[in-house]
Amino acid sequence: MQLRHFPHRRTHEPTPSQDAPDHANRVFAVQRTGALAVAAVILVFGLLGFAGGLDFFSTEGEPVLGMSSNGLLSTISVLTAVVLVVAALRGPRVASTVMIVVGTLFLVSALANLAALRTSFNVLAFEMDNVVFSVVAGLLLLLLGAYGRVSGSLPPDSPYARPRTEDSEPESYPSTPAEFAAERAMRAAEIAVVNHVATADQRRRVAAMAEVHSRGDRRRVWMEFDRSAS
Hints:
By secondary structure, the chain is mainly α. About 60% of the residues lie in helices and about 5% in strands. The chain has 2 domains: about 25-145; about 175-230, no CATH class.
């Protein structure tokens, strides 16, 4: 009995080089620049809140850049900006993931604080302008984070495209009565060879099939023996 040899499959991985694909460069630039730009706006808003000496847990905030803020919101804003900056510096993939997560949190925050407006639960001192900003910033972060990453058909040079195998071919399944009969005979011959009870014809056929790799090719080899015999 001959053992079938399965060649190692190689995958096409993007090779780092100085001349990276234009699409990858554009995606990375948009994501990193977007993360830094949004972080800059949020950081300025938070620092101005600190500079104004706002009460930390006041539910009636003070105006900052056309919005309302208190010490707690200023702290959260600075921390969020730092997270976005660190993500952008770590790499575009990290920046993309962080922007999607932070964008989702912005949208959740907008809905939660909209329900808490004019109540004692408004611990971030939100006003309607804050809600609008949270929605806009959240959607922008989601758009930038998903840019070049979330798509039904990514181009081959996309940094988020899945690597494809070199010899990836669709599996061939039997579709005719003759092919189904050949499949049954092939399985019976392989079992007989393993159990050392195969006939000379079965051993020849199994040995010939061992020279090919796909199931469809092995089935064609078997059926060529049938045609020769007839």
